[in-house]
Specification:
globular; 23% helix; eight-stranded mixed beta sheet
Length: 413
């Protein structure tokens, strides 16, 4: 196909969007609004849309820049999607992604929301998950990330420009010692915690990780490293280092600084909470629960991750918080009647039973924190029978990627 396509927007996954001659939307990675491009032969046509690959930039957008990370272009790294455009263009794209979802799916009459830009555009990630692939029939293996157009492949990672320097220092120390990791390694996760320690989580099939103590002893500053072994489809456990402390397998936003800013704004929107009962659903390690308690609320925090709840229970809070390990949809009938609720569900959104409880017995104030605009919009549409949206703000927790965090404030009708 040799037709020239004009790119007009960036879609939720980070691809540029244009129109084919037949009117179908075509999604093309690594393109920018305002560009005119030529597609490679072999465009994949679907009933109402198409996917193509960039062959040539006929006219570049004013916002196009040279990606600073070599992996982005050379290895077509799929970890980031927007390094090829200016940061200002990234923010505009994310505002538009959220606004489009709210109008098209939630059917709200709203504009593109304000977005809070990141404190740091680079080196912000406190967690890095690396894929593993064997090289031929040898014992060699590639440990790194996937190309965006070949998700079954893995390229060797040298440096990730959005990962914290301390994570990359740990990776440089680990790379010459990969033979000390489990032989049937399937995934390797590196994580920093707020207690100053570094975690190495090795997921594998077969026998447990026998060389973990040797690896920890070989690493510079190994006393700050904790090694975890996680069997595929099983629970992780410490195999070298102290077995107490922060659980690296528990959910926490990969950009802790920006997460704190977003959470602070969300809690502020609830106003005076002195003496009020507040539910913190999908509360994770308790950050929101502690912030609510600091404002005088009687907080009940629920999360399905037992390790996260166990760590949260040992946290210092200005007043007692009731932490419950369980699925939100299962424990709702046992909770005291709230005057306000904060929900921060996973990417799949609210469980239907949670939505039914919130609509059937509305609360005066509801805060929805979301990492996925599409499921957020779906849930807002379901909640609109008994709630009205009073404020929306986006937060750029993940610069250089198409991901965006959104906080929506609602009041019971």
């Amino acid at each position: 196909m040799s037709d020239v396509v004009a790119i007009t927007a960036i879609a939720a996954g980070g691809e540029g969007v244009g129109r084919l001659a037949d009117g179908r939307a075509v999604f093309v990675a690594r393109t920018a609004p305002g560009e005119r491009i030529r597609l490679r032969e072999g465009v994949k046509l679907h009933k109402s849309f198409a996917r193509g690959e960039l062959a040539e930039i006929v006219a570049a957008a004013a916002d196009r820049v040279t990606p600073p990370c070599p992996h982005y272009a050379q290895d077509r790294c799929g970890g980031c999607q927007l390094q090829h455009v200016t940061y200002e263009a990234q923010l505009a794209a994310k505002r538009a992604i959220v606004g489009d979802a709210l109008r098209r799916i939630a059917r709200l009459d709203v504009g593109d929301p304000e977005i809070v830009e990141a404190v740091e555009e680079w080196r912000y990630r406190a967690k890095l998950s690396l894929a593993v692939k064997s090289i031929g029939r040898s014992d060699l293996r590639a440990v790194g990330l996937h190309p965006y157009d070949r998700p079954a492949s893995v390229f060797q990672l040298i440096d990730c420009h959005v990962a914290d320097f301390r994570l990359m220092a740990l990776w440089r120390e680990l790379r010459p010692r990969l033979d000390l990791l489990p032989p049937r390694l399937t995934r390797l996760t590196l994580r920093l915690d707020r207690e100053g320690r570094r975690h190495v989580v090795a997921e594998s099939t077969g026998e447990p990780w026998h060389n973990s103590e040797a690896l920890r002893a070989a690493l510079p500053g190994g006393e700050t490293v904790i090694c975890w072994w996680q069997p595929v489809d099983g629970a992780a456990r410490v195999v070298a280092g102290p077995a107490t402390g922060f659980p690296p397998t528990a959910f926490e936003q990969d950009n802790p600084e920006m997460s704190t800013i977003a959470r602070g704004w969300a809690v502020e929107q609830l106003g005076d909470l002195r003496g009020a009962v507040v539910w913190d659903l999908y509360g994770g390690i308790g950050d929101t629960a502690v912030a609510l308690a600091e404002r005088g609320a009687q907080v009940v925090s629920v999360d399905a991750d037992e390790k996260a709840i166990d760590w949260a229970r040992r946290r210092q809070a200005p007043r007692p918080v009731r932490f419950i390990a369980g699925k939100a949809e299962d424990v709702l009938p046992t909770l005291p009647e709230p005057s306000a609720v904060v929900v921060n569900p996973p990417r799949a959104g609210l469980h239907w039973n949670v939505t039914l409880r919130l609509t059937g017995q509305p609360v005066s104030r509801l805060i929805y924190v979301s990492c996925d605009p599409a499921t957020l919009a779906r849930d807002l549409h379901r909640l609109s029978a008994t709630y009205r949206v009073t404020a929306v703000r986006a937060f750029d927790l993940f610069p250089q990627t198409a991901q965006v965090e959104t906080v929506v404030v609602m009041e019971g009708a």
